[in-house]
Amino acid sequence: MSEEKRALVIESEGEVAERLVRALGAAGVSHAAHASDGHTGLAMAEAFDYALITLELMVPKLGGPDLCRALREARPASPLLAVTARADAVALLLGTRYGIDDCVFKPVVEGDLTAKARALLARSTIITQAAAPEISDLRVGDVSFSPATRTIVVEGRTLPAFSAAEFELLYFLATHAGASFPEEEILATLWGLHPPVRLKQLSVDLRHVQQKLRGLMTGFRYVTMTERGRMRFDIPDPAPAMIKVGRAHRARAATPW
Fold first, then answer.
1. Are residues 108 and 152 both part of a single domain?
2. What pLDDT is attached to residue 242?
3. What is the C-alpha separation between 84 and 20, in angstroms, rounded?
4. 90 contact partners, CB below 8 Å, separation of at least 6
5. Are residues 144 and 124 part of one domain?
6. How far is it, in rounded angstroms, from Cα 191 to Cα 128?
7. Does any domain span residue 21?
8. What is the pLDDT of residue 239?
9. Is residue 29 part of a domain?
10. Could you give the count of Cα atoms lying within 13 Å of 101 in the half-sphere of its Cβ?
11. Which segments of the chain have a pLDDT < 70?
12. What's the domain count of the chain?
């Protein structure tokens, strides 16, 4: 028997909320709760665990970045799917900065939302079942990772919120600091996906990670894409020792260039 998946829909427009609920049902959600404002939605997210949360970025009573941050703190493992009428890059960039996993634009196309919700639910299940039992806090040089809260701290400064995919990508690369990996191998290892399913989105995730790192670090890039199209996490010379805290992460042989 398959596990039931509950979702939370934070949306002020009743008709749009109904379309979201139908689309989520088609994606495999067994029950979708609805909140028409940000305060109610946050209270529900704090009280119950949800496999997926959709949120209107401009929802009344606590919306936009404040709601994104609060939801990410309340439910760090729940994928966040933003719904917005602002069909421009600014809205998407704003969302990813505060931990949004993906975004759909109004008027909502149910098939598009169903596809994105299904992908987020599948990835979340893979990460929960495969990675969570072995993942642990990690420190590489001056960078510290806390998977439980999905936070990254550099020299005492906490970076902007990371989506689940961004955090998993950076954590994986940092665990194997200095080794480079082709995009196809990262997709298969982390999420069990194969190109062209998510290859383009992986490059977007990397760009968002680089933007967030660039905002707080002085000159050092940390994450790079090599000339051969491989991703790598670097640490400044001399390379500090990598320290693991808590349960050991499964060892993995470094992939050569």
1. no
2. 47
3. 12
4. none
5. no
6. 10
7. yes
8. 42
9. yes
10. 29
11. 1-3, 87-97, 124-135, 188, 191-201, 214-221, 227, 236-257
12. 2
Report how far residue 203's alpha carbon sits from residue 207's, in angstroms, rounded to the nearest whole number. Answer: 6
Q: Residue 193's domain spans which residues? A: 137-245
CA atoms within 13 A on the CB side of 103: 25
Q: In DSSP terms, which residues pair with 180 in a beta bridge? A: 232
Pull the structure tokens for residue 23: 């689309």
Of 98, 131, 164, the residue that ends a domain is 131
Q: Are strands 52-56 and 80-84 parallel, antiparallel or unpaired?
A: parallel
- Does this model's pTM top 0.70? My answer is no
Instruction: Note the residue count of the chain.
Output: 257
Rounded Cα gap, residues 101 and 207, in angstroms: 14
| Sign of the C-alpha dihedral computed for residues 181, 184, 211 and 245 taken in this order | negative
What pLDDT does residue 197 have?
46
Per-residue CA distances from 254 to 16, 52, 63, 141, 172 (Å): 47, 34, 43, 18, 12
Separation CA 137–CA 113 (nearest Å):
33
12/110 same-domain check: yes
Tell me: do 35 and 56 sit in the same domain: yes
C-alpha to C-alpha distance for 233 and 173, rounded to whole angstroms = 5
**What whole-number distance in Å separates Cα of residue 88 and Cα of residue 39?**
26
Q: Is residue 255, in this structure, part of any structural domain at all?
A: no
Same structural domain, 11 and 122: yes
Q: Is 96 helix (H, G, I), strand (E, B) or coil?
A: helix
